[in-house]
Design goal:
Radius of gyration: 20 Å
CATH architecture: Beta Barrel
CATH topology: Porin
Shape: globular
Number of domains: 1
Distance between the termini: 41 Å
Number of helices: 5
Number of strands: 15
Strand content: over 45%
Order of helices and strands: HHEEEHHEEEEEEEEEHEEE
CATH superfamily: monomeric porin ompg
Strand order of the largest sheet: 1-2-3-7-8-9-10-11-12-13-14-15
Structural class: mainly beta
Length: 354
């Protein structure tokens, strides 16, 4: 135990050899545990799991995030490939002490997601996003909706519509900044591995563990990534009850020291996802997911950096006879997260099992 604790400590001091050793050891343990498990999906049609969209708050996208996922693994030799496409509107403007920040943007994000079963009970995956942020077109629509249902936020009423502005400053110097009138490019590449610990039983849910590493391919100068590698670990539960399937994901993420030159420390943060899918028939299902996300920043005084985020996703999945699936829906923050994250997101995902 002391050796493991020393290893985790060294990760934060950039000893990459320890990180590699820890991840390889973790994967070997998962493989040894799952190599003898039978896979119940081997002869069954693969069903889409939770909708695999991460929190789309622009600042949170700088770091590794755990995608919502099922505990079941793909059968050996089977894969899944899909494209998640989202459009998100965000408006935040805050000042506190030495910090100030403005996020006024609309973002289109397309993420290519792939999973593949390499052994019974063992799955690998990857994500590669493409991001395009600019002034957008939804500002007037969102203001009208807020006026109809409630009193709009002051920042929304005073906003210069269809404008792009993105920066966070400390002592007048920007340490997060989207350049020019828009910012586009590749985000950070993510590698994942998931191993099943035990199968689902009559009363027992399926349980799996996962590990993920973010490779800093996104341009930090255009706020497309943090510029540092992150890593994370998680546990996944899944249980079928008649036409319902319930999911629970819990993950801890360890970010790299992305802003040490600005004397801004980062801490580990946590993500919890609870989801439920109701299967209407063999092809059509509806889903709801509640996500809870803590933040890697602390004590800055800016809610856009410090405050945890709750968001609710509601969507629908249609699975064709040829194993092509289409997902659509929306995501909205709730429970006083309005000054911490994105305002609203719409998504359309297309994928296929092979």
């Amino acid at each position: 135990m002391r050796k493991i604790l020393r290893c985790i400590t060294n990760l934060h001091s950039k000893k990459s050899s320890c990180l590699i050793f820890y991840i390889i050891s973790f994967l070997i343990l998962l493989y040894r545990r799952t190599a003898f498990c039978s896979n119940l999906l081997e002869n069954k049609k693969v069903q889409p799991g939770p909708i695999s969209i991460v929190n789309l708050a622009p600042i949170q996208l700088l770091f590794l995030q755990a995608i919502p996922d099922r505990a079941e693994t793909l059968p050996k030799g089977k894969g899944s490939l899909h494209l998640n496409t989202t459009i998100t509107n965000t408006l935040l403007s805050q000042r506190s002490g030495n910090y100030e920040g403005v996020i006024d943007m609309e973002m289109i994000r397309a993420s290519m997601e792939m999973q593949y079963g390499i052994a019974p009970g063992f799955e690998i995956g990857m994500s590669l996003p493409l991001v395009c942020s600019g002034s957008g077109i939804m500002d007037n629509f969102i203001l009208d909706v807020e006026k109809f249902f409630t009193d709009p936020r002051k920042v929304r009423e005073e906003e210069d519509h269809n404008k792009y502005e993105y920066y966070v400053k400390k002592n007048g110097k920007a340490f997060i900044s989207g350049k020019g009138k828009r910012s586009s490019g590749l985000g950070d590449f993510v590698l994942r591995a998931k191993g099943k610990i035990w199968e689902e039983g009559d009363t027992r849910p399926c349980l799996s563990a996962r590990v993920a590493v973010k490779v800093p391919t996104g341009d930090k100068d255009r706020a497309l990534g943090s510029g540092k590698a992150d890593y994370g670990f998680g546990l996944l539960l899944q249980k079928d009850i008649t036409n319902f399937t319930f999911y629970l994901n819990t993950d801890v993420i360890f970010p790299g020291d992305a802003f040490e030159d600005e004397n801004i420390s980062l801490r580990e943060f946590y993500e919890v996802m609870f989801g439920a899918r109701y299967k209407i028939n063999s092809q059509l299902s509806i889903l709801a997911q509640v996500n809870y996300t803590t933040r890697p920043f602390e004590n800055t005084g800016l809610q856009m950096l410090d405050r945890r985020i709750f968001d609710l996703l509601v969507g629908i999945t249609y699975l064709t006879e040829g194993d092509l699936f289409i997902q659509g829906g929306g995501i909205e923050d709730f429970h006083d997260s309005i000054d911490a994250g994105a305002d609203i997101t719409f998504f359309l995902n297309i994928g296929r099992h092979f």
